[in-house]
Amino acid sequence: MISGAGYFQPLKSAGNYLLWMALLALLVLAGGYCAYTMEHEGHHITGMNNSIVWGLPHVFAISLILAASGALNGATLSSVFGNKTYSPYARLSVVLSICLLIGGLIVLVLDLGRPDRLAVALTTYNFKSIFSWNIFLYTGFIAVGVLYLATMLEKSLQRFTQTMGVVALIWRIVLTTGTGSIFGFLVGRSALDSAILAPLFIALSLVMGSAVLALVMTWAGRWQSQTVSARTQHSFVRLLLWCVLAVLYFSIVHHLTNLYVAEHQSDEHNVLKGAFAVLFWFSHLALLGIVAALAFALKQGEGYLSTMKWHAVCAVSLIACTMILYAVIIGSQSTPQLLFPDKTITASTFGDGGIGPYLPSVWEWGLGIGGTALSLLLFGVVLRVLPITSTTQS
Amino acid sequence: MSLRLNLALLILPAALLLVMPGYADDNGPVIPPATYGDQCVADTDIMRKEHMSLLNHQRDETVIEGIRGEPFSLVSCVNCHAQNDNGGQPIRIDAKGQFCESCHTYAAVKIDCFTCHAALPEENAVIGSLQNNLPVASTYSNKQLLVMQSHKVAHKASHDYQRK
Amino acid sequence: MTTSVNNNSGGDQPQGSGNAQLARRRFLQKLGLMGAVAASYTLLEVQAKTAASSDKRWGLFIDTSKCSSGCDACVRGCNEEHGIDAGKDEHTRAQWIRKIDLTDNLTGAESSVPVMCQHCDSAPCVDVCPTGASFKRADGVVLVNKHTCIGCRYCMMACPYKARSFIHENLTDQKPSAPRGKGTVESCTLCVHRIDSDQNQQPACAVSCTDEAHSAIVFGDLNDPDSDISKKLKTVGGSQIRADLSLNTGVRYHGL
């Protein structure tokens, strides 16, 4: 797969690289401070509570993990499906994927009530828990990614690149299924109790990963004084279009089936008309808009978009998918759990029957942004040390 | 490799130098005597070395199997070893200079028990729990050692089992 | 509506009776290896004496016809017993037991019920816990082992009854019999510290309810056909909250 990809070399310190790294390091420090404060004071300083038990940090963490799985798109297309357009970006794609996953995991771990007991989580397993399986899937994904990268970096190992590419592809599909299943197996929450969440999460991961990869490719390319070629962009536009369509498909099927089932009426009311309506409609209309824009670009200009428009498309896709995740993760918790189907709750000391209150605090924002910054900081550092970026266009 | 070796050679003596001052004029920690009873649930030597593994084993038995009122429970420790202030009010066992704190500070080991567990004795519980839990024989050290060792084995066994 | 209460089927649960036996046997094997016969006798007696047994399945029967809307004696009794501060924000403080007032959508009939951990036989919280900290005892009591709880709150996501609480802040002055601390999850323990020491003792909520002359909460062994709770269930009947989930709860309600 490497043939035709030209030379790879570590990034030269050019332009505003150091400035970016310094900014990211600051964000990481701020995130660390937020995490420390949360652990020291306890979660009462966050917006999370006993009704909304998973909050903004989980939205960030799941987004990063999904994006990590999807960011491998470039490498998969190159080494598994033999699409040479992506060959110059295959290494970048793997490194980005690993870094995003690490950032996501750090956010997840630092949000624990007892992050000091991480060793317990890594040594004591309950194999009936999908969470336990995910611990293996996540750490295994990093290992597979590192091996995959090694087959690309080391000439004598390059004959294994395709095999590792297949392993990584299967692994990430299982990983994203596992992540979706964290929510899909919850019988107690009717808004979540659905197997379709797993494919929805896979589709979301493809969109988010592709969008991040596309943004980062120009980011890294700029320091090598390069631009992404028209051919690559054309391919990317088609990729993103199909992935966005997949997200819309699974999301619409999910909500249509829920609308049909009487039991899910209040969940759907909350998401479509209630507190989460803005998120839902904005994200879905934005994705529809992106489908239209990309289809138009393919028809009129063979997929050509100005860099600014292309970046805008990627950024909006990312934000829209994160909003969908927010609505899935937090919307589902804010919907009251139906304990007494035939009765109306007239009084409760624990908000039964009402919408769960949640307003993310500055600490949660800090932790989430810090984790994202950590991913990008790691990515920037690896780019400087290893020959990841290509010097020739494709 | 050689760089790593050099680093290790540098760091080890440095670390030794750092901890050396702790040994200067070392008379050990000042541990206050127990408030109730004249014999602990095991010999002092055993308790000093093994109290955590005894406590951990007892803990797992109590939490998971519901076995209560056994000698090596944290509540029993606090009941006997927490001291009273001049006004007769009990003092937290992890307060400065108290039974747990004095030794743990000396050994530089953080206590993770009393953020959740009560550091003050049960009300009116001391006498009863003493009578129930104290060993009866006086020639205990050998047997106690056996019990203690089997506790350790049992603890490991129960952990291995849970892990499976 | 159902009154049949199966005991835990074992197998997939780490604390079934077979497992306890197995652990005990292994424990003895290891002792045998050491040749410490005297010590093994001492410990064997201790172990066999008081461990929670799968012969029993503890449960609660709640007669909603006796429960009154304005009364929260059970909640106060529980808070007092476990040192729970009820004065704090209702969404972040611990809520082991809560009162809910209901109106029937069809008939307009009003009722009031206490809701706590339902001590499911197939507990979702036990299934999802990554470290096995959320577990079911041999006698059916669902607990959190706070020594291995990492505070991930997945059990709270999984619980259909909103019965679990995460400790959001530092606590002080805990009761010796109710260790509780920041960063871990907790819920109703059926007052195991009381029922383990003396099988005639009742959980604090049941005692408070009786003291209030309501006697709406009956505690007892669902496996024993002659226990008060089994007789009640047999004569007046009791249903489960969210029986559709087939969780086989240990808490049953009459008049829901």
Structure characterization notes:
The complex is a heterotrimer of chains A (394), B (164) and C (256). Chain A is mainly alpha-helical and 394 residues long. Chain A has one domain (15-336, 360-387): Formate dehydrogenase/DMSO reductase domain (Formate dehydrogenase/DMSO reductase fold, Up-down Bundle). Chain A has helices spanning 17-41, 56-71, 73-79, 90-110, 118-123, 130-153, 161-184, 197-223, 230-260, 265-273, 277-301, 307-334, 362-385; strands spanning 8-9, 343-348, 389-390. In chain A, helix 2 (56-71) packs antiparallel against helix 4, helix 2 packs across helix 12 and helix 6 (130-153) runs antiparallel to helix 7. Chain A starts with 7 loop residues before the first strand and ends with a strand. Residues 1-5 of chain A have low confidence and may be disordered. Chain B has six helices and no strands. Chain B has helices at 2-19, 44-65, 74-81, 99-107, 126-133, 141-163. Chain C has 256 residues and is an alpha+beta fold. Chain C folds into two domains: 17-50; 58-254, Alpha-Beta Plaits, CATH 3.30.70. Chain C contains eight helices and nine strands. Chain C has helices at 17-34, 37-50, 73-82, 124-128, 154-158, 192-197, 204-211, 228-236; strands at residues 58-63, 97-104, 110-116, 134-136, 142-144, 165-166, 185-186, 217-221, 251-254. Chain C has a three-stranded mixed β-sheet with strand order 8-1-9. In chain C, a hairpin with a 5-residue loop joins strand 4 (134-136) and strand 5 (142-144). At the A-C interface, helix 5, helix 6 and strand 2 of A face strand 2, strand 3, helix 4, helix 5 and strand 6 of C. Strand 2 (343-348) of chain A pairs antiparallel with strand 2 (97-104) of chain C.
CATH topology tier name of the largest domain in chain C: Alpha-Beta Plaits
> Oligomeric status of the shown chains?
heterotrimer
Number of structural units classed as domains of chain B:
1
Tell me the count of domains of chain C. Answer: 2
Largest sheet of chain B: none
What is the tally of beta strands of chain B? 0
Query: What is the averaged pLDDT score of chain B?
Result: 75
Task: Please write the string of helix (H) and strand (E) elements of chain C.
Answer: HHEHEEHEEHEEHHEHE
β-sheet strand percentage of chain B: under 5%
Largest protein interface, residues of each chain:
A-C, 51 and 60 residues
Total helical segments of chain B: 6
Q: Outline the biggest β-sheet of chain C.
A: 3 strands, mixed
Average pLDDT of chain C works out at 84
